[in-house]
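Risk register update: the risk that structure generation would not scale has been downgraded. Supporting records follow, first protein first.
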Amino acid sequence: MSRFSGAVITECMSSRPVRLVCCIAITGLIGSGGAAQDQQQARFTILDRPTLTFMGDVGLIDMPSADSMADADVTATAMYANNILRTVIQFQVTPRISGIFRYAVLNDFLPDSGTLYDRSFDIRYRFLDETRHRPAFAIGLRDFGGTGVYGSEYIVATKGVGDRMRVSAGIGWGRLGSYGGFSNPLGILADGFKSRATSGNNAGELDFGEWFRGDAAFFGGVEWRATDRFTFKFEYSSDAYERESDPMGFTHKSPFNAAVSYRFDNGIDLSAAYLYGSEIGVMLNYTFNPKTPRIPDGIDDGGPSVVPRDVAAARSWGLDLSDDGASPASRASMQARLAQQLEAEGVILKSFRIEGSRVIVHIRNDRYDAPTQAIGRTARALTSVLPRQVETFVIVPIVASMPVSAITIQRSDLEELAFDLDGSWKSYARAEIAEGSPYRLRREDYVPGAYPDMRARFGGYLVPSFFDPDSPIRIEVGAELAAAYTPRPGIVFSGALRQPIAGNLDDATRTSNSVLPHVRTDIVEYEKESELEVSYLTGEYFFRPGDNLYGRVSVGMLERMYGGISAEVLWKPVEGPLALGGEFNYVRQRDYDVLFDFRDYEVATGHLSAYYDFSNGFLGQVDAGRYLAGDWGATFSLDREFANGVKIGGFFTLTDVSFDDFGEGSFDKGFRFIVPLSWLTGEPSQRGFGQTIRPVLRDGGARLSVRNRLYEITRRLHDPELKERWGRFWR
């Protein structure tokens, strides 16, 4: 840092707080002249991973910065200070956009020393990158859809100074304009910017008309990376903590905060801070990236190798190959050897047919979360059992006995690319992925024992409940027996029994105050009265009405709370990003014991759905129609799915139910994630852990949770999903 820059900082320390912020901003700009790094170097060499605030977003101590985490980073944060506990999950949705969910426990906040369990969402956008001569800029909203306890907006700039220092300065509104505030400069645009209504009256509403309104205030600070592990931070905060002062006896003595952070090697940061001139706070962060497995993947065996034709021909000596390998004896022998080999790989051979130089096989993948891994192992196994004249392999993956797609691979390509360093990409480029409906299962091609088919599974289950309005976490563990019987292609009878063993889901005391039909808010009654329960018990029919079309009809106990009939049709081309679907349900509410009785409430629901693959793993979905409470509206969803199967997304639903009638939360919203077991263990598995987290569960915007919706069970076997995971073809 230059001598002039240091002098400026010294002068700032002796000035008033507002002047301090201005000096910090000036220092960030003039100090850049001596920095040789460009924007990427400044952000990821100086601070390879930005530090977080005690609010759980990227920044200083309480104040945000314009830095961003690495693309797709997920950070879990827990902090405690002055009888306040905050747990935060931050997701870097794109390199510029981050989203945050915060769950705060504020003891003695409510009248009569009651505890407030506050849920809130943040969003921030970095709209300018840092360069040699310019800071990065970001704009953000805190608590834009919650109770408003932390409701605020800000614009902030951040710049690297030298090799180890980051300087931030910004302006805030709402809570971030509560200390040292002044008349809103945006008031020159319109008088409406000059005033702001009291926050927190309409929990869950998006108060667009209050954003960037009312008094504004400056904030800023410095973070210095003393070593690769220690980072020191100092800030001037524009948060007066007015909401906490009276009910909690909170003492705010100073706008200056100081903190130190220590970074471990495993993604953990530990921080301590001196806050507001009166309090000590501690914070723990854990950061990981879903793109990177927890342990190295691919630790399973490599599967079958490509067998050259000369070797394959030698193995076929003694077989009757006079009819191109299609005589009954030859066919039966090859079929049996292939079925045995694939079963060892977790792939079930359902049909086998040779047509001259072409073979057509239908397979069911029972092991691999990446379908391309099952397809690749099937292709390599075929090289070891087929006579040399068979050149073309048509592999047809099936789901619920429906042919979803047809992958055509030339045997000569497998032989050529088996040891090619760029074999994955070249094999995808040469493969043909086509519509699967022309390759329907034929009875004469069934392998022995293909149908009827019986599968059963016994094991444990875990049901967590995170961040409900009365408790941070609840949990239930138990035993589950699930079975499925397929007497013929397309017809499936399945069910599951659950027996709780331990947990506290039934400890909830909150009763429903909904003015709508209690389609979901009576969940506490289900937890209290159910013991051994029938989770679902259904008969399903899956079919292909035509090219690019899929159909499903389900009858029975469709989910834990509803039974009836559900019918769905989906249009989804193999190679197109767009899919369209429609669903109709007529259901009745199940009794609280979750066995075979029903309650009086029944309803007809249905939705028209549009799905779009935006590439780079982003999947958008819109569902419009009628919900369980009889309300009409639409659900908007956006998910990001990574090549390893990790999926993170969010959603919100708006219906004709007013915010007042909806109740707490104003409208349905939340986020969800799915973590495959293979990502955690490195071993192939189709099982995983998923959870949907809502700030509060209400009756408005509630949709039937029917199993096996067509888009989710088919899209993984279409392009571009196969392309995204084709790297596993050779594993």
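Supporting record for the second protein:
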Amino acid sequence: MLQKVKFAPGFNKQVTATGGENQWVSGDFVRFRYGTPEKVGGWAQLGDNTLTGRNTALHHFVSSDGIKYAALGTNRFLYVYSGGAFYDITPLKSTTTLTNAFTTTQSDATVTITFASAHGISKFDIIRCDNFSAATNSNFDSDDFDDTNFMVTSVPSSTTLTVEMGSAESGSGASTSGGVRVKHFYSIGPATEASAAGWGLGLWGGTVAGELTDTLDGALTSGSSSIVLDDSASFPASGTVLIDNERIAYTTNTTGTNTLSGLTRGADNTTAASHSDDATVTDASDYTKWGASQTGDIVTAPGLWTLDNFGNKLIATIVDGSSFEWNANATGATSTRATVISGCPTATTQTLVSTPDRHLVAFGTETTIGTTSTQDDMYIRWSDQESLTSWAPTATNTAGTQRLADGTRIVGAIRGRDAIYIWTDTSLFIMRFVGAPFTFSFQQVGTNCGLIGKNAAVEVDGSAYWMSENGFFRYTGRLESLPCLVEDYVYDDINTVPKNHIYAGLNNLFGEVTWFYPGSGSASNNRSVTYNYMDSSPQRAVWTTSSLARSAWSDSHIFGKPHATEYDSDSTSDSTVGNTDGCTTYYEHETGNNQIKAGTATAITANIQSGDFDLGVQGNLQGDTNAGEVMMKIRRVLPDFLTQTGTTRVTLNLKNYPTDSEASSSLGPFDITASTDKIDTRARARAIALKVSNTGLAQHWKVGTFRLDIQPDGRR
């Protein structure tokens, strides 16, 4: 007889397949809408090119001229997207005009650029060249250099650097000939977040074992050829020392005069610099280099931006660095670059514009503006109202400061409908504008609910949703722990080292909050988990999981559809010569049924599978007593789809025992179309799971209520 099979909305991954009767237990690229599953919408690449580095910041806004902008911050560049094109607005740190600057070697792709003085550029920084005059005896010309971005390959000394060309020198080799203008961009940071190596450790770029220290006996210039210590007797005969942020290699230790000589300044891609008398000198001979194995729980910070807009001005902050502004209404705006905000703190983890009062708020910032060493991870500053440059509190302005008390650092903040939500690593605070004399009030509203990563929270309709180290939370005026039927699946596999790559995105079109996160062994987001706040009820929270990988997301409020970015660490298909950081692709979502990249459409292979269902002794499905007591025989399946485009595949997965491997019906899987009335099958099993999927282009489906022709078939 024909029997309906119904399943509760959402995935339940907290049970076995057998325990998931009447439920969906797995799937990919599906969502629930009005209680029934469907394949997600497609996505298509925006713009003709990919972007250098990993994008982890995406912000949409509209200028007063009505022009829509998307701002994107990668670990190397700051871009705006408008009218189908990308524009590089990355701020410049310096511009230097050089003559007799180039050295090349025949059959080698390396070009050495020599500066007249210390350049302050590090390995992996980005430079841009123009006004190139051809180098004698070289095949490289203006076409190879003008208006071209290069990633610096190495920094042999404080006055030289190298870049790798796309091809080798075919001439005899240039020697100190050729002129160029070199523009140096602000350094944002590495693409990856890693454990126990590199940025942010005790020493710049690493750490040392058996640390020894002494002090300088006399100041050093960037060109000094020897180092005099108060006492060099305990230092190795040859090795490396660290002074401030410069590593210096030496070949000779003359203990009678306490002198280190045979120097290589700016070793290991640091920068030669001047150092004051009595500066600390650290023996770094046992230095643990970037990426080398090291015991410890220190996590290095990736290069990140935070983005917001102050009216027509984009506010972009390098995390733990400076803040910049870019005026969208300026003449020729897309051909101008962001510039440093004068008077603004120079070391800040995040900036945010408060509304409607319009203060620029800096989180995790300096107690003394302009002194980066005073950065306090729990300290908050805000500017005077309607000002980006006035930060000193006075009796006649609204600038001010506040230090939070619970936690060790401010992880992230978002703007809500009537407040700013601030998360530390342990707690949630609410910041509200109250006017004079205090300007803002601060209230702690939650504990043991800290934010897992800087971008792991969103706000919608007055409610904040976020991911913590120990679960998912919501704040609606009171703190709630979100029940989650996929929680173990997510937290048992998530890689928490690159936690600042975790990104929460709102898709208001479908009532979804999605967290994109890196799975075990991955340094990039390669999985996602979605909470459907529109379909969820007190009785059942609707969650799904997916392999959709996105590094940033922005809702449809500006462009009409959500936009997102995808990062590929292995790609070099961008405009930066020598790029080793990978590339980012920018997409519009909820468009069509395919994924389109570089003009090529490929299928989105979506699927959903139920838990096992079986027969009771009365011959009834789902919930009868003594379920699974008898075998069942399935002769027909009557498919039911609310919508169906193209071909959809239906599979009956058969088991006799819970530990059995799934086996498909002998006549299946079944490829059906909108005109398919029934599926004839020969299936016999104690338990059956239903799977719906697709494999081809332009296919879409939304599942209704299937009916199966089932009869009892004995107990063996």
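Confidence is low (pLDDT under 50) at residues 196-210, 287-298. On this basis the risk owner (M.S.) recommends closing the item.
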